[in-house]
Amino acid sequence: MPHIPSDYENIFEKKMSWTERQRMATLVAVISYFTLIGWVVAMVIYDKHQSSLASFHLRQSLGLIITGAILSLIPLVGWILNVGVLLAWVVGLYGAIRGQEYKVPLLGDLYQQYLDFIK
Description:
Structural class: mainly alpha
Shape: elongated
Largest sheet: none
Oligomer: single chain
Number of helices: 5
Helix content: 55-70%
Radius of gyration: 17 Å
Order of helices and strands: HHHHH
């Protein structure tokens, strides 16, 4: 019979150092920018590792996903405006990689205000 540690039930509840928590928050922030599936995966990870950086970028990336989807429904003009969404996505992803709370241009404040259900 294999040896089972006495704290087996708490193996996933390990206390993380500040550096590990920052890395996990940055990882969640970066993953959230990779499509809707990435956002869902980041949200699942965020459930166990909550941080202000992760919630900030989860709101920004969800806002970009919603904006891009709505603009995709508008022929020609919306498709052209999606180029701006792509540029905002690059700005948001860059901020996530750097571990900074940098709002995307134009709509970043609205995303933070109206998507506040992500705490």
